[in-house]
Amino acid sequence: MLKIAYDPIYAHPLPEGHRFPMLKYELIPEQLLHEGIITSENLFSPKTLNEEIILWTHDKTYWHQLRDLTLPAKEARRIGFPLSAGLVEREIRIAKGTIDGCHYAFEYGIAFNVAGGTHHAGTNWGEGFCLLNDQAIAANYLLNNELASSILIIDLDVHQGNGTAQIFENEPRVFTFSMHGANNFPYRKERSDLDIPLADGTSDDEYLAILKRTLPSLIEQQKPDFVFYLSGVDVLKTDKLGKLALSMEACRERDRLVLEECKLRHIPVQVSMGGGYSADIKAIVEAHCNTYRLAHHLHF
């Protein structure tokens, strides 16, 4: 069964100026339900998360400042959202949805979080609309519970997964791979285990050729027993914050390459949806829904 973490809190409570791109969190499940790809049984609402699990990834002082809404103003501005109890609760539930998705991925091969991909959050900082790093929290959860011993994080959002890279810079059991726009945010990059920075305007053929050359050999080399995939659709040419030039078809082919490799090698994969900021909300929803459609076709 295709299990998808979704909660209305994913779209709320966000500041007025940020609500348009966040509509996708409501529209994606609605579209999949409309198409009959899923039913309400496929959706699950994540609950809260034990503080101990958060502290396996994030610094205690940073977490307490988030929790107590005492983060210094300069650090709060770096996040990009006005800090609120509702926003912190949202990030906790997103992280719990990714952890729950790991368990479903072990059972069914793949699972999704409609939100997630909060890869700019580092050990002791939030940045770029990210407070807590959901896939890093889930990866440490798997390691600490001995549910996985070799993890590969595939981050194909247009922005480098700088927080994820920093969190795991000294953790040999987690390999971080980020393929992103060289000139996109964040302007101060961290060092992933493998970074592939791409020039502005990178086209379909070039992008897919690089991924085809890289991914199969990387998986063969690392032999992960679990994969996290960040499938941001801000790689699209229509994206307002991205600088690449991928078509909808190339974005779908990118997802196919990743999901087929995992399926072929029987590696469970958890997918967080990441960014997407095209001016037309329909383009964002369609690109994200393609990832679900592919997973449904491959696994179910």
From TrEMBL:
Gene3D superfamilies per the UniProt record, alphabetical: Histone deacetylase domain
Name of one Pfam family that matches: Hist_deacetyl
Domain of life: Bacteria
Cytoplasm as UniProt keyword: no
Domain Histone deacetylase: 20-288
CDD domains xrefs: HDAC_classIV
Keyword Hydrolase among UniProt keywords: yes
GO MF entries: histone deacetylase activity; hydrolase activity
InterPro entries for the chain: HDAC_classIV, HDACs, His_deacetylse_dom, His_deacetylse_dom_sf, Ureohydrolase_dom_sf
BP GO terms, sorted: epigenetic regulation of gene expression
SUPFAM superfamilies the record matches: Arginase/deacetylase (SSF52768)
Keywords: Hydrolase
Family: Belongs to the histone deacetylase family.
Name of protein: Histone deacetylase
Species per Swiss-Prot/TrEMBL record: Mucilaginibacter ginsenosidivorans
